[in-house]
Amino acid sequence: MKYVNPKSSRRVTPFQYRVYDLVAQVPAGRVTSYKILSDVLKSSPRAVGQALRVNPFCPLPVPCHRVIAANYSIGGFAGGSGDHQFTADKRAKLQAEGCVFGEHYDFKHDKNGSTEFFDKFVF
Q1: Residue 33 resides in a domain
Q2: Does this model's pTM top 0.70?
Q3: pLDDT tens digit string along 70-109?
Q4: What domain range includes position 76?
Q5: Of 12, 22, 36, 64, which residue is the catalytic one?
Q6: 64: annotated active-site residue
């Protein structure tokens, strides 16, 4: 498919489509990590993050806010990290889905009370 991303003015690459296809499988109230996605894609967490940074299909059908860092920190979002409005927005979206965070944006558990990352991807 030759879709031009309005955020980057570039075509969406096959790698970006693969990232978006996986992230679209993460259920509401659950999270996965950049590392898990990169392992599945045989890539790097940074490459996954870069694809999500320009996600033209967010928040639905590709809910990139459901991807956090492997150390359970919320990670960056839309190019922001730490105590940043974009990061606060990401936390708010996840909290609305039932996820719980500590006071410093650290993930405590998902809507089911689990700290397990979603990794049941179907190809």
Answers
A1: yes
A2: yes
A3: 999 986 555 545 556 778 888 999 999 999 999 878 899 9
A4: 9-109
A5: 64
A6: yes
